[in-house]
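Suppose a colleague, Dr. K., hands you the sequence of a protein chain of 372 amino acids and asks what its three-dimensional shape might be. Before reaching for any lab equipment, you can write down a predicted structure in token form. Begin with the sequence itself:
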Amino acid sequence: MQFSEVLGQQDLKLRLLQGVKNGRISHAQMWLGKSGHGLLPLALAYCQFLFCENRKESDSCGVCASCQKVQKLQHPDLHFAFPIVLAEGDISDKFYGDWRAKIFENPYFDLNQWTLSIDEKGRKPVIGNHESQNVLKKLRLKSYEGAYKIMLIWMAEEMNETASNKLLKILEEPPEKTIFLLLVENPDKILTTILSRTQLIKVPPIDHTSLSSKLMEHFGLHLTDADSVAYMSEGSWITAYELAASGTRNVAVREMFIEGFRAAYKKDVIAMMNWANNLSGLSREEQKGFLRYGLHLFRQSLLYSYTDEKLIRLSPEELDFVRNFSRFVTGNNFEELYELFSQTHYHVDRNANPKILFTDLIFQVMKLIHVA
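The predicted structure, expressed as tokens, is then:
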């Protein structure tokens, strides 16, 4: 993958390029950000640039033998470790075919999407003891092509304690010309001793303009729709893609949102049950799009209540709605509402019964909006 294929992130790309050109390449790097910000695509583009035999000013050449090997994920000095479901295998190598297929399909994916692609039961994946032994075994070998050896550990916070401690030892005394790239979403789950031994590289949200342009190009959206989806996604291409792919448009979703909250406010049980039935009849992607939209409106409503209106990221029609709706979303219930919609999204993604989910959701909403 080349930097030109990575969405947005122009400032970070420039810093990474300058670091390589100036010889400032830390042997242990922790890349921190959300998967939807392009964590993995950026890391792959960085690896390709490091291996490239004919680097250009702002990118790898994309045509040399090394670039071709990285693009096919077949470079002998580029190694991967990632979370796996231990009931299905003990090391990443056994899932490498699935890993390559997932990246070739779309390199913007998160842990949940990866897990469901290798385990239909959605069991919790980890980076376990056998994986850490495999990492050590690979890094004891000399570089095949005489340059760097790179170990890219995706979602490194999913290492168990034993694996983390073994990694710590090799980070303290790394083999020559070895580079560790630890891709992390939640640094709180990483050992502080590992944190202290790595160079932190923050991967920020993708800028609004890049997201909106990509949405227009990929989905054929009009500028207004693309801007609205980009605002809702908050810098994540994964979220933006899900919202656009769901086929829902904000007017219809907003009307459904209003209908549900109106019924909950009135404590109209029949209307609430009808609303839950209607929502459960939508496709799973449409249900997820609705929940994402609700999360977006909660955030914007809280911003409207407590900050300057200039910070709001809404269309004029949505802003009119939020001016009235914001009184139902306050510091008293925001966290509970946000968690409720987030958890419902999580369970929809795992094929839970939608009628039960949305019936529970609307009754929980009824309770929460009356404590605003």
